[in-house]
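User: Thanks for the earlier help. One more: VOC family protein. Can you show the sequence and predicted structure together?

Assistant: Of course, both are below.
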Amino acid sequence: MTERLVSHLRYAALAVPNFEVERDFFVRHWGLTEVRAEDGLSYLAAEGSTEPFILRLRKDDKRVDLAGFGVRSRADVDALAAKLHAEDVQFIHEPQELDGFSGGYGFRVFDGDGRALEFSTGYQTREARKIREREPIPAKLSHMVFNSQDLNKTAQWYVDHLDFTISDSLVRPDGTDMMHFMRCNPNHHSIAVAMGPHHSLHHLSFEMRGIEEWMRGAGKILRSGARMIWGPGRHNAGDNTFAYFLDPAGNTIEYTTELSMVDDENWVAHKHDISQLSTQDQWGTAQEMSELVARESFNDIDKGLFVAPPV
């Protein structure tokens, strides 16, 4: 089994101008729990996860603040920092005791496109509970997907520096790469990179307890007035269900479940032709993918690249 220094995706941090509206949506409708509130800052947890929070919202101009990743130990944090220094990765700050909510020990860097990444360990966890049958709330954060103007260059940065592995790819009929699904543990993907017109957030995905909870959750969000932009359906790559919505800030967010688990020793990456309807939706229940659907997830240009978030 491949030993990686990065163990898992912990959280996503977003800055949004409509902070109060966004926070209300994620708590009242999406099903997250606010565990800490500060002036213009909200930390939101998933009831089924031991992570202290899986989403952080901050009041500011719209941007991706951080993608937070877990590391198993302080020794691994130091080893990863040393590796990235040797590879001339740009640091935001060195390994240190973290003074933000939940604490821990870690460091931050910019990826090759300028997204801020945090790697941490030793933070305070919370007690998770079992999600009840038919309870339509997220159990955990599943994955985070970025748009990139240079898909292969962005994906290769995560392969070279963080030892992520490409599990599967989406390609055009002529073989042009359109999306890479990337793993750092047995989950089929913790991040993915999609070809887009600019660097931005493509979507955040939240794992539900099961199919019943996923469908009930999708209905709940529809009744909230949010617009479903694609779904419900079941992808081929990752074999997970999907229902994509727009949040009040215009970010694409997903309810999913049953993401595949893969074995590093035996898994063979596939290239799925996006012109085949079964590539996008095995069930055929979702509308056909089109430019009109795809552009909803292009999002606004991320103006926070190579600018460290203030918290």
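User: Great, one quick takeaway?

Assistant: The chain is about 20% helix and 35% strand.
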